[in-house]
Design goal:
Elements lengths: L7 H4 E3 L15 H6 L3 E4 L8 H4 L14 E4 L4 E3 L7 H22 L8 E8 L3 H6 L24 E8 L7 E6 L2 H8 L8 H9 L9 H15 L1 H6 L2 E6 L4 E5 L5 E5 L3 E8 L11 H9 L5
Parallel strand pairs: 1-2
Antiparallel strand pairs: 2-9, 3-4, 3-5, 5-11, 6-9, 6-11, 7-8, 7-10
Helix pairs in contact: 6-10
The protein binds fe (ii) ion.
Protein name: 3-deoxy-D-manno-oct-2-ulosonic acid (Kdo) hydroxylase family protein
InterPro entries: Kdo_hydroxlase
Length: 299
């Protein structure tokens, strides 16, 4: 695998937390690193499950119609649990996980504390090999991509994700991490289809999208697709492999940092949205990078 992006130290910043509310090291500016597209890696930050909760770690718990179990803590809304008698235990687990992630934000990214919104967390129980086998190339997350939501335009808001490997059998989660966003954008912008306000209007009208898809959302979806469809880029584009062992956690802006999940099973994940103006360096947001390259507003 080519490792032309840079070395592992440059793409990944390691932090020593052992507890979700540990006091951070003053010497590391975690917000600045994250906003540059780096992955914050916590090799010793585990999320502990009780003996009863460990028995939940089986793909049979997931509704066959869904990829993952997900939870919206503000609405206390749980979806994707196939076994009714496990519902309450899963809900308590995901509520506790959400609280831990909030504590971590206060500890590591306190600047974002009041601006993060729309929390959703997920319990991911399928091995990556299983969903790769059953999906189209567009949904194949073993290909390098940046995250973009097809039906939920977000108008440039950042997608912040916290991941924890909870594999009980010692299996690492293996990722590839790609190049910095400004380089990615320059590489792919000339290949993206032009935006059509009429098509966006139509997609909203007939319910394909929940709200009107902005120019920004169009470009991010296009970038997601064009990256995944480019097999030469997948193979030889700038990238490096990163391993996340069980008992470790990591954070990234998944709309900015190209990533691919290559192997692993059993993970907890927390998503938040963050307004661009809540960033310390808004010029690093994909929205601002794309607007600068195209010399026009995109939302
Ligand atoms: Fe992703």
């Amino acid at each position: 695998m080519p490792e032309t992006r840079t070395n592992q130290e440059a793409a990944v910043i390691t932090l020593p937390h052992q507890d979700w509310s540990d006091v951070p090291l003053a010497s590391i500016d975690a917000v600045a690193a994250l906003e540059q597209g780096k992955v914050l890696f916590f090799p010793h930050l585990a999320f502990n499950l009780s003996e009863a909760e460990k028995k939940l770690l089986t793909p049979e718990l997931v509704d066959p119609k869904r990829k993952n179990i997900s939870y919206q803590p503000e609405q206390q809304k749980l979806t994707g649990v196939a076994l009714a008698d496990k519902y309450e235990m899963v809900q308590k687990l995901l509520a506790r996980h959400h609280q831990a992630c909030q504590a971590l934000i206060i500890s590591v990214l306190p600047e974002y504390r009041h601006a993060l919104h729309m929390p959703t967390n997920s319990l991911r129980l399928h091995p990556i090999s299983a969903w790769k086998a059953s999906t189209s190339w567009r949904k194949d997350d073993t290909r390098l991509h940046v995250d973009a939501f097809p039906s939920r335009p977000n108008y440039g808001e950042r997608i912040l994700r916290i991941f924890t490997n909870i594999n009980p059998h010692g299996e690492n989660r293996l990722w590839r991490v790609g190049e910095p966003f400004p380089e990615l954008a320059q590489r792919f912008l000339p290949r993206l289809k032009p935006y059509s306000p009429f098509i966006s209007w139509l997609q909203d009208k007939i319910g394909i999208t929940k709200t009107h898809r902005s120019h920004y959302d169009h470009l991010m979806l296009q970038m997601h697709d064009v990256m995944k469809a480019d097999l030469e880029y997948q193979k030889n584009g700038p990238q490096q492999a990163v391993e996340f062992p069980p008992g470790s956690s990591w954070i990234c802006f998944s709309d900015q940092t190209p990533h691919a999940a290559m192997a692993g099973q059993f993970m907890l994940e927390q998503t938040f949205l963050l307004p661009v103006n809540a960033m310390k360096t808004p010029q690093n947001a994909p929205l601002k990078v794309l607007e600068t390259l195209l010399h026009k507003p995109l939302v």
